[in-house]
């Protein structure tokens, strides 16, 4: 069975833990605590074991992010499209990551997350402009609009993960 290490990064409160838990259980969790250390969770998907490294997103814990990317098969980065107040902070953190992972050559699944929120279209466009992924990230990029309230968007993440070889 193939084993894939998937590192999941984002700012705190962006919905990353809820997304990982939904991928594993297919249930939307409504109660959760902040991620304070790496949470490692496994999902059997076809002939693969996907090992998610769910990283803490609080500012004082982000220093651990880069070490987690060593030997990663994929990076998933989430941005909360409903939280434009933190857009610049998220862009800054992603730029730091992108500058440091060039040599790792790992694919990126970039999730514009929480797209189920009302009146999100303008926010989504603003987020896409702010990140300018094509000019920033040198590896293969998959851009998705995701919500745990839309199973098709989560299935798209799974389909991408099935394309990766160990």
UniProtKB/TrEMBL annotation:
Protein name: GTP-binding protein
PROSITE patterns xrefs: ARF (PS51417)
Source organism, top-level taxon: Archaea
Keywords: GTP-binding, Nucleotide-binding
InterPro entries for the chain: ARL2/3 (IPR044612), P-loop_NTPase (IPR027417), Small_GTP-bd (IPR005225), Small_GTPase_ARF/SAR (IPR006689)
Organism: Candidatus Lokiarchaeum ossiferum
Keyword Nucleotide-binding: yes
Ribonucleoprotein among keywords: no
The organism's taxonomic lineage, starting at the top: Archaea, Promethearchaeati, Promethearchaeota, Promethearchaeia, Promethearchaeales
